[in-house]
Amino acid sequence: MGFSPFTLVQFLFLLIPSLVHPSRPTNGIITDQSALLEFKKGIVADPQSSLSNWNKANHVCEWKGVTCSTESGRVTELDLKGYQKFIRAVLLRTDSGVLNTSAIDLSTSYPRITYRELVEATGEFNQSRLIGSGSFGHVYRGVLSDGSVVAVKVLRIQSGNSTRSFNRECQILRRIRHRNLMRIITICSLPDFKALVLPYMSNGSLESYLHPEEWHSGLQLGFMERVNICSDVAEGMAYLHHHSPVQVIHCDLKPSNILLNDDMTALVSDFGIARLVMTTDERTMTAETAGNSMANLLSGSIGYIAPEYGYGRSASTKGDVYSFGILVLEIVTRKRPTDDIFNEGLSLHRWVKNHYHDQLSKVVDSSLMNNIRGLNPEIKNMWEVAIIELLDLGLLCTQDAPSNRPTMRDAADDLDKLKHYLGVDTTATFTSAHGVSSSTITAGDSW
């Protein structure tokens, strides 16, 4: 049985009786069932079908390994035996009586990998295996003993910030699960060494495609790839802001933190400075976590930081929306927000806006312009309309006033409509969440 691609061997959940609300046994057993079904989603391999009867057709107290209290009728123990390792975790009930799987301590919810195993996997952290580096530390390509290719993120531990960053990233990654968000395979945590083992992304980062050190034709992004990447990032961020069990503000959205897998699906990564804002059932804990971890810290990277952060405003979802808007503009223009041309009050946002109603060809990536010129008139018009929609979305997301920016859910919806418009048929139209309609855009006037 695999749990977040490692082998789960045995989980024993010990419930704290003082937090149980026995006065609500019927509702309680339903919430226990929901929590265990959510836990089951994290098991990615069950070759023996050990949990085949874990479904709503069977009463939760009849599920394999589940023991319920004869008094309250609530789940009191989960015991899965016969696997290779033993893991024990404490499962806390919240004040509302909900079985809280996200409260499992990190040290028990991920199997540990030894330092020696990582040394062997990375060829003693050989420079030839180095695939990335930054203020956080280094990332190496590794091959585990079972042949799995992984990315090993080794953190610098000279400062307390790196340890907090490591703990925060682990804390967030164990709570979230989405196809467009990076996940943890395992960790190695020692007093003088800390590393995350993550899935290896064979296509690297979006940064390497937008700004390659040496231009290679194989690193060019097609227009639909750019639209899909924008959509993938928006979906991942919408999940963090609106659908995750714990709301997360990423705080550092930029091309180097967008990784691309084998089929060019984009995954948001690097949650080292992210903030846990709230959950329905853990408000007190998460509020303290967010306050302590981010005090006196300006969140993000230069060029992507929302302007209100410079005035002391706390990190917010609208700050992430601003970073996303800059990212969208960068994907279309292939200009960094820190490019040398942006000085004396000129920014990426203002530069695009100055050309928005005419001469857009001056700001759109030249490789996209070359592709457009070779299209038939009907498809050419669709692409021009779509590029205008992307730029419009980028400009909306990067408005100075946070209240004027859309939500990531709105952005994700707009991009989904845009993909439908481009991919279904040439007569399709779309209308964005802010009323921009493809039927009212005259693309040629802007070029």
What's the number of extended β-strand segments? 18
Round the Cα radius of gyration to an integer and report it. 24 Å
Provide the number of structural domains.
3
What is the distance, rounded to the nearest whole angstrom, between the alpha carbons of the first and last residues? 56 Å
> What kind of oligomer do you see?
single chain
Discrete helix count: 12
Class by alpha and beta content: alpha+beta
How confident overall, as mean pLDDT?
A: 77
If you had to describe this structure to a student in words, what would you say it looks like?
There is one protein chain. The chain is α+β, with helices and mostly antiparallel strands and 447 residues long. The chain has three domains: 2-109, no CATH class; 115-199, Phosphorylase Kinase, domain 1 (2-Layer Sandwich), CATH 3.30.200; 206-446, Transferase(Phosphotransferase), domain 1. It is built from twelve helices and 18 strands. The protein has helices at residues 25-41, 106-109, 115-121, 160-173, 206-210, 223-243, 283-294, 317-333, 348-354, 366-373, 377-397, 408-423, and strands spanning 2-3, 6-7, 11-14, 43-45, 66-68, 75-78, 87-90, 92-93, 99-100, 130-134, 137-143, 149-155, 186-190, 193-199, 247-249, 258-260, 266-268, 275-278. The strands form seven sheets. Strands 10-11-12-14-13 form a five-stranded antiparallel sheet. A three-stranded antiparallel sheet has the order 2-1-4. It has a two-stranded parallel ribbon with strand order 3-7. Strand 8 and strand 9 (99-100) form a beta hairpin. Helix 6 runs antiparallel to helix 8 and helix 11 (377-397) packs antiparallel against helix 12. The protein is globular and about 75 Å long. It starts with a strand and ends in a 24-residue tail after the last helix. Residues 1-25, 82-109 and 278-296 have low confidence and may be disordered. This is non-specific serine/threonine protein kinase. InterPro entries: Kinase-like_dom_sf, LRR_dom_sf, LRR_N_plant-typ, LRR_receptor-like_kinase, Prot_kinase_dom, Protein_kinase_ATP_BS, Ser-Thr/Tyr_kinase_cat_dom, Ser/Thr_kinase_AS. It catalyses: L-threonyl-[protein] + ATP = O-phospho-L-threonyl-[protein] + ADP + H(+); L-seryl-[protein] + ATP = O-phospho-L-seryl-[protein] + ADP + H(+). Residues 125-422 form the Protein kinase domain. It is an enzyme of class 2 (transferase).
